[in-house]
Amino acid sequence: MGGRPVPPAHLLGSLPSLSPWLSASELRIGLGCMRLSTDDARDEELALETIRAAREAGITVFDTARSYGLGADDLGHNERLLARALRGATARVVTKGGMSRTGGGWIPDGRAKAIRADCEASLAALDGLPIDLYLIHAPDPRTPWRTSVRALARLVEAGLVERVGLSNVNRSQLDEALKLAPISAVQVAVSPYDDRALRGGVVERCTELDIALIAHSPLGGPRRAGRLDRNPALAGVAEARGATAAEIALAWLLALSPVVVPIPGARRPETARSAAHAATLALEADDREVLDQAFGAPRPARRPRRKDADVVLVMGIPGAGKARVAQEHVARGYLRLNRDERGGTLRELAGALDDALASGTRLVVLDNTYLTRATRSHVIETASRNGAPTRCIWLDTPLAQAQVNLVERLLERFGSLPSPDELRERARREPDMLAPTSQMRAQRELEPPSEDEGFAGIERMTFEREPAARGERAGVFVAAAALREPRWEDALAEVDRSAPHLIFDWKPEGTPDALADLAARLERDVSGAVETAICPHGGGPPSCWCRPPLPGLPLAFARGHRVDPSRSVLIGTSPAHRTLATTLGARFVPV
After folding, report:
1. pLDDT at position 471, please?
2. pLDDT digits (tens, 9 = 90+) for 300-312
3. CA dist 388 to 156, 306, 312, Å?
4. How many C-beta atoms surround the C-beta of residue 281 within 10 A?
5. Using CA atoms, how far apart are residues 265 and 146, in angstroms rounded to an integer?
6. How far is CA 527 from its chain centroid?
7. pLDDT given at position 465
8. Which helix (H) or strand (E) holds 205?
9. Helix/strand/coil (H/E/C) assignment for every residue in 252-272
10. What is the per-residue pLDDT for 19?
């Protein structure tokens, strides 16, 4: 792994030696209890024995969640296990709500009423065992973040829980939550295999503010934990210390910051006892140096800044228009580093940047999504190591306009809209061939850039669509639902009847023939060409670009008829049709 940022030394030196959430007499480690209930081959008696062994070994923090069970019919199983195992014992129960198990999946539900109901259900399942810390399980993209966080605050006000916190958040979400609720802890993945919370500034912010940082999956999760024994650095330190590789990995995490509280999972008593032993290990400076080299050292000292160097990081969601900005820099002599062209990972691109700067290249532009502080940190750190400043150009393109750009790219590449199967097949070979859900997920993951990341400057560019080519004409897009309304003909008074007309609809398993009668009706009243188009794909999250209000069908029609969508009219009946008109820049005529 490459270098990673850690909290500044002046912060570490000014903080207490233990997380303020825990007392000085408590081990700074907890037990992650999830798999005691979610494994298909779970053994309740062995689970109870494991929890009790952890408590006897001195562990006081036990992490659970209402959703930890085998599915929707097994909610609260893990909490009930803890209630049985810890009855009469002093323990800190950390539980989480705001996660449903619909269809066996894991679906965030951040509505205020869901968080309150989950908390009350957890209290019932724990059967008198108090909740020391209650976390929202994950941000819900369908619910405003402030709504979910305020619901947490009300749990404290109502006296239902002692403290509240967050789980699976980035730094910007943490910073917003701090303004709305008394956040005592943050739970995120941190391990030798996962440095996103470190690079993304979450650990740094928690260290700065004395907020407990609960590290889930601290050994990398069940699939990767076995690799620890094969790591030469861990194996060497473990042998010298008379400990296991897993214990040394946990000790290394504890040394990152005084607020870090790892919660390794355990399914056997001996594993729980091993976790407790890790909390008693004190690594020597030489040990830490070896492990830092293996898993990521602190930020290297900056070289004197080169006045002739300029590294430009162009960021934005897919379809934001980054390539155009990069090409403008290439025309001015910049070397372009782009993952779509070169392949590999963003971290490997940072290696290419390192090679370029070390060999004397002065001007470099990198145009990739760079949605998070963590992904951007590799560029900033590499440039700094070579004495080059990093400037950020953020293309703040609205999602709807980025959708138009992606559809135009698909039409340019293929001449028509690919089916969901074709899109999935292409995406395996071409990273820029995205489904709508991938682009929407990118929008949710976007963390706006901040100068405290180390940028020399940030330029925020708003999106402006270039004027259509000369000779393009107006068209008329007609939602099929509009033609089924009694007064649909009134809308024709507001359009050019000689313009090309498209009738569009969404009907799973449907064909354009289903719109033949509507097309015949419209042809009697207009002189322009009339075509039909239908999205035949099923419901759920969109897997295609043709389901309204996504812009695929009108844009494909516009391309075939040299129509300028921004000069066109869309006749519709619903808010979704109005949204589509706004996306296209067309005038909306309601029916």
Report:
1. 66
2. 555 677 789 999 9
3. 48, 6, 10
4. 18
5. 31
6. 49
7. 87
8. helix 202-209
9. HHHHHCCCEEECCECCCHHHH
10. 57
pTM of the model: 0.85
Predicted confidence at residue 10, as pLDDT, reads: 34
How far apart are the C-alpha atoms of 253 and 240, rounded to whole Å? 18
CA distance 318 to 322: 8
Q: Beta strands 530-535 and 569-572: pairing type?
A: unpaired
**Do 373 and 171 meet the contact criterion of CB atoms below 8 Å apart?**
yes
d(CA 96, CA 51): 18
Question: Residue 393 in contact with residue 312, Cβ under 8 Å?
Answer: yes
Residues 133-147 have pLDDT tens digits of 999 999 999 999 999
Instruction: Return d(Cα 565, Cα 580) in angstroms, integer.
Output: 11
Q: Sheet of 587-590: strands edge to edge?
A: 530-535, 501-506, 476-479, 569-572, 587-590
Euclidean distance between CA atoms 510 and 504, whole angstroms = 12
Mention every residue, 6+ apart, whose C-beta is less than 8 A from residue 60. Answer: 22, 26, 27, 30, 90, 91, 92
- CA neighbours within 13 Å on the CB side: how many for 398? 10
Residues in the chain where the model's pLDDT stays below 70: 1-20, 296-303, 469-471
Provide the CA 115 distance to its chain's centre, in angstroms.
21
3-class SS of residue 163: strand
Place of tokens 């999250």: 541
Distance of alpha carbon 489 from alpha carbon 591, whole angstroms: 9
Q: What pLDDT, on a 0 to 100 scale, did the predictor assign at position 470?
A: 57
Phi-psi region of 78 (alpha: psi -120 to 50; beta: other; left: phi over 0): alpha
Look at residues 169, 171, 152, 150 and name the one whose alpha carbon lies nearest to residue 161: 152
CA 591 to chain centre: 39
Position 138, amino acid: A
What is the gyration radius of the CA atoms in the chain, in angstroms?
28
